[in-house]
Amino acid sequence: MKVLVLNAGSSSIKYQLFDSAEWRVLAHGLIARIGEEAGELKLNWYDAAGAAQSRQETRPIPTHQAGLDLLIADLRERGLLADVTELAAIGHRVVHGGPNFNHPMIVDDAVVAEIESVIPLAPLHNPGHLAGIAVARQLFPSVPSVAVFDTAFHQTMPPTAYRYAIPEFLYTEHRIRRYGFHGTSHHYVAKRAAALLGKPLAKCNLITLHLGNGASASAIRNGQCVDTSMGLTPLEGLVMGTRCGDIDPAVAIYALKNLGLDADGVDQLLNRQSGLLGICGVNDMREIDLRAAAGDAAAELAIGITAHRLKKYIGAYSAELGAVDAIVFTGGIGENAAGIRQRACADLERLGIVLDDTLNAARKPSGERRISTPASAVQVLVIPTNEELEIAQQALAAVSPIE
Ligand code: ADP
Predict the structure, then answer these.
(1) How confident is the model at residue 99, as a pLDDT?
(2) Residue (of 353, 335, 351, 313) closest to 227 by Cα position
(3) Domains within the chain, CATH numbers bracketed
(4) pLDDT of residue 403
(5) Which residues pair with 146 in a beta bridge?
(6) What is the Cα–Cα distance from 297 to 303, expressed in whole angstroms?
(7) Which residues surround ligand 1 with Cβ inside 6 Å?
(8) What does the record note about the cofactor (predicted)?
(9) Does pTM top 0.85 for this prediction?
């Protein structure tokens, strides 16, 4: 059988098509600029001989439905999906599942209503996901759609971790609490870490660090998330590409009172103009590395603040967990930026963390690997994330009868 994974935004749909037999990627790509004159269709696939092929087309794609219609026609033409009956499930990435979803859900009207009800908590994401879900249900009524939530893995946090020290009515009446995001990625790398450690996940204590354009840390005890750095929204926690992460909330009040900004202006300031971009004018870590190496003080400071914040979270989560089996780096920065890893883990011998500088700096191998010394009580691992695979596997598991 095959599983289609969709990550639908307000004007784009990213997709991957898997063969569930050995979880091979058959095709992946992007439907972009939906609703604009020059919509874009990108398809990458593997032909019968296993050779990578790609095709790109610019044409009007008025709606999500038109985009998916074109995609299915493309897949059919290349023999990748002869008929939609080959699809066991469609897995949908949903950023915010609110307080009630702690596992993937086969989508029905009640699930749609619940995802709608948390739109105020994720106004930039959930409407796009809902558009993708609506079209999938309409075009393929016989194929179950499964919503896989970024928040679900974090639902095991205790109230001491997920409640904020603010008046209770904000929680009871407005559902304001820590939710956490990137859960699919934290869960995936935690499972892979357990496999590398040779232990069941249920016996692993881990600190997982997903460092991409967005960044978050999770503390995992006995395989379950007990704390995470993102909060009500993905703004809290680590330094990110354009998001500030942890700051004194009074910064927002100051901006409202003194900078002539309204709520949307403050939202833009903290979500889109801050983080690495705000500190040094660039949000691409590769560029920042090059600039810092060339002596740019702002770029150096951006790296310094990022690593300092990471180290604080490693320390905090080490204290929360007591014993840590492994720290896992993932995401574009976590997988590639050796300098950030080195600074975040430096001088933590007392916490049992000893990086092997040669293994850390080596560019090859680039896959799953250990970068700590054999003497390090806490293993430090690099594990490339694969959120699409995790969504596909969770979607198939959700529609498969329990054995
Ligand atoms: P997203 O959150 O959009 O999925 P990614 O996980 O792809 O993002 O991470 C993007 C970040 O990873 C960018 O800051 C990018 O510069 C950084 N990155 C990718 N490759 C490297 C590299 N070789 N060295 C340093 N940073 C890298």
Answers:
(1) 92
(2) 313
(3) 2-149 (3.30.420.40), 200-387 (3.30.420.40)
(4) 61
(5) 91, 106
(6) 10
(7) 212-214, 241, 284-286, 289, 331-333, 336-337
(8) Mg(2+). Can also accept Mn(2+).
(9) yes
